[in-house]
Amino acid sequence: MTLFIIIVLTLLGSALMRVLSTSSESIAQEVIGTRAYMAANSAMQAELQQLFPLNSSSTCPLAPLAPSVTSHNFSTSGMNIDGLFHCTAEATCSWYASHPDTEEKYYRLTSTGKCASSALTSSSKDVVVSSRTLQVEARSL
């Protein structure tokens, strides 16, 4: 009877440990996914600021369908943003159409943020990586 109780308690304990491990992994993935979203959002805001600056001309490409690409590495850029450590983002801006009568230009901006639980190297193992992509369409006035 004692042996039976010990076996049942051991099985229950191992099942509980497995559930706790799975739960912590999903929470880590959720946190890293949120960081990737924020990295993509930061790169998108920077790209929009370059596209529509207050007192100068736009930096988006002047030729249709020729996207400009801007990369942001939040870990090494000296920004010291703790929440975006081990994160990178890449933003693209392309002019895809214009209105012939009003000379309005239509832009498509895409930003992809990528974050990891530690530094990404070619020999990294057991690193949780998450990526999020945002897309915005805008027009000039």
Description:
By secondary structure, the protein is α+β, with helices and mostly antiparallel strands. It has one domain. The protein has one helix and four strands, in the order H-E-E-E-E. Strand 2 and strand 3 form a beta hairpin. The mean pLDDT is 81.
Q: What would you say about this model in short?
A:
Helix content is 35%, strand content 29%. The chain contains one helix and four strands.
Q: Give the CA-based shape.
A: elongated
> Helix-strand pattern, N to C?
HEEEE
**Gap from first CA to last CA:** 82 Å
Number of domains: 1
Count the E strands.
Answer: 4
Mean pLDDT level: 81
Strand content: 25-35%
Count up the helices. 1
Largest beta-sheet characterization: 4 strands, antiparallel
Largest sheet, spatial ordering of strands: 1-2-3-4
Radius of gyration: 23 Å
Fraction of residues in helices?
25-40%
State the assembly state of the protein chains: single chain
Q: What key attributes describe this structure?
A:
141 residues, alpha+beta, 1 helix
Write the layout of secondary structure elements.
Layout: H1 2-51, E1 68-73, E2 87-98, E3 105-116, E4 129-139
Antiparallel strand pairs: 1-2, 2-3, 3-4
